[in-house]
Amino acid sequence: MLKIENLQVEIDDQEIVKGLDLEVGEGEIHAIMGPNGSGKSTLANVLMGHPRYEVTGGAVTFRGEDVFELEADERAKLGMFLAFQYPSEVPGVSVANFLRTAVNSVREEELSAMEMYRLIQDKMKIMQMDPKFAERYLNEGFSGGEKKRNEILQMLLLEPRLAVLDETDSGLDVDALKVVAHGVNSLRSPERSMLLVTHYERLLELIVPDRVHVLAAGRIVKSGGKDLARELDERGYDWVQAEAQA
Fold it and tell me: What is the model's pTM?
């Protein structure tokens, strides 16, 4: 599904990602963990084509396509999706209008107004969201939990082949985290892959990954199963970094 080879990325002339390699197979969920500043969010943004980041080396292919030859909208149409760590507010644009535009832009045939209404209502039930939520302006005045639920609502509607979730669990209380995890798990399938960027093992108790990777100083320095996340929660990252340096 996704293959990253020797990826190198700079921002403002500072190298952040320094030779990252990763492969994600179809139907797999991989978690990326690591200390602050290690390059986790940089990786997520680069995959979707954020213009602030400069790719200085390496290659990324998604479903056999060269990602760096595609604009952000082309990546989305091919099946890539990014849930932002800090979703932007868009005053004047309702959630419903935003979702309708997004969904129709990636479909070969547009849904009718009634089909779209029913689809949005069905997905909002999964996310335990009040139907009136769709009338509000996108993320304007939303709580942290509402913003994250709205990100997962978008994912449920777009049904991407690869979902990259950038610290979707940050700022969520226990109840909101369970709802978000339920939404993510409802989309799991053999044809769909996910990349979870997170600091915390608690998310991975609810969304169980196939592989866990530790990113430090711009590289993946250790990989393992879900038990690695629990060990990181107990011991921190220093031992992994020391082990990598040795």
Answer: 0.90
Q: Is 152 helix (H, G, I), strand (E, B) or coil?
A: helix
**Who's near 87: CB < 8 A, 6+ residues apart?**
139, 142, 147, 148, 150, 151
Query: Which amino acid does the sequence have at 167?
Result: E
Structure tokens at 215: 């990113």
User: Which is nearest to 238 in space by CA: 34, 92, 48?
Assistant: 34
Q: What is the pLDDT of residue 66?
A: 96
Residue 51: is it exposed, middle or buried by C-beta count within 10 angstroms (0-12/13-18/19+)? exposed
Q: Set out the domains of the chain in order of their start, with CATH numbers.
A: 2-88+160-245 (3.40.50.300)
Cβ contact 32:210 at 8 Å: no
Average of per-residue pLDDT across 57-83 = 94
pLDDT band with cut points at 50, 70 and 90 for residue 246: low
pLDDT at 8: 95
**Gyration radius (Cα) of the chain, Å:** 18
Buried b (16+ CB within 10 A) or exposed e, 127-136: bebeeebbeb
152 closest CA partner among 88, 83, 78, 218: 83
List pLDDT tens digits, range 29-67: 999 998 888 888 899 999 999 999 999 999 999 999 999
